[in-house]
């Protein structure tokens, strides 16, 4: 059975409309990376902020509403075409409302009492899915996948399974994560947070920038449109926080996605890398890509444009790739141009590249060796 990603609601540091995101992505615009001051060293670090107001009690709800607004009409049509219990929701997330909960917990530590406005929903992983269920009225299967940075890459296979097994006629699928100082501090404690603009694949790279985003697709059966061609996953469990330097898990994930899609490696036109800008990830991922694809496929990390959106990273990668295929453009890889000697040779995209983009592979690699690769295409 073929499924298509029919519609997309998407907000990130590149913009809050498709037109804005496409225009900024084409030219590699990093102006959406603002500096914020977390509770770490006395510096401001780059962060991929979304330009929307905070109106909800949990920031990730604001992001979801902004994305949902873009696909209101298709949502209404689904509700008129299908029974509500045949419409599902699967979201990838990792932080949910931890940022808000931390503020309340800090008050409790100072006063001995939790403030009245504290709610367990702030830290429940299901909360963004429950929020979408309430807003859409969808009554089919609804759950959150949380496997750190691979969360919202893994949701696509789950959504496809629901449709293939005739449990759902359509699934709202994607990911969300909002700003969270707890996560900023955590990456800083791991010496993985860059105080400068992230610089993936450079010999000067020194860590990640974080960001926030929401990306929501409507997945349905169909032959017309941008298809979900294949998903591959692996769990190498090499280390709690470090990737296997041999790239074995990433290689397995990408090969599995190609097999699932029924494609040879030369059918891929673009690889949207995980590309965090950390020393370990970039060396590992470049080795894995070179092992599977050689150095002929255009590659880029989009995290210098959006920040690393953690649980939303997989869906953000797929969303940007969906826009690339729909509008036929190449997102350039933004770095200082000093290619790292510890990275295997791969072909980084530039603003000068002109190429038909039909099939894109998106990588998302998480702590603990949880790896996922998603292929979408015409």
How would you describe what is shown here?
The structure is a single chain. The protein is α/β, with parallel strands linked by helices and 378 residues long. The chain has one domain (3-377): Thiolase/Chalcone synthase (Peroxisomal Thiolase, Chain A, domain 1, 3-Layer(aba) Sandwich). 33% of the residues lie in helices and 21% in strands. The protein contains eleven helices and 14 strands. It has helices at residues 18-26, 59-69, 72-81, 98-111, 127-136, 151-164, 181-189, 248-261, 279-293, 303-306, 313-327; strands at residues 3-11, 33-36, 45-48, 87-92, 142-145, 170-177, 210-211, 213-221, 227-235, 270-273, 298-301, 347-348, 359-366, 370-377. Strands 9-14-13-10-11-12 form a six-stranded mixed β-sheet. α6 packs across α11. The radius of gyration is 19 Å and the shape is globular. The model has no long low-confidence stretch (mean pLDDT 96).
Could you give a short description of this structure?
This protein has 378 residues and is α/β, with parallel strands linked by helices. The chain is built from eleven helices and 14 strands. It has a single domain, classed as Peroxisomal Thiolase, Chain A, domain 1 (3-Layer(aba) Sandwich), CATH 3.40.47.10.
Secondary-structure map with pairings?
Layout: E1 3-11, H1 18-26, E2 33-36, E3 45-48, H2 59-69, H3 72-81, E4 87-92, H4 98-111, H5 127-136, E5 142-145, H6 151-164, E6 170-177, H7 181-189, E7 210-211, E8 213-221, E9 227-235, H8 248-261, E10 270-273, H9 279-293, E11 298-301, H10 303-306, H11 313-327, E12 347-348, E13 359-366, E14 370-377
Parallel strand pairs: 3-7, 4-5, 4-6, 10-11, 10-13, 11-12
Antiparallel strand pairs: 1-8, 2-3, 6-8, 9-14, 13-14
Helix pairs in contact: 1-11, 6-11, 8-9
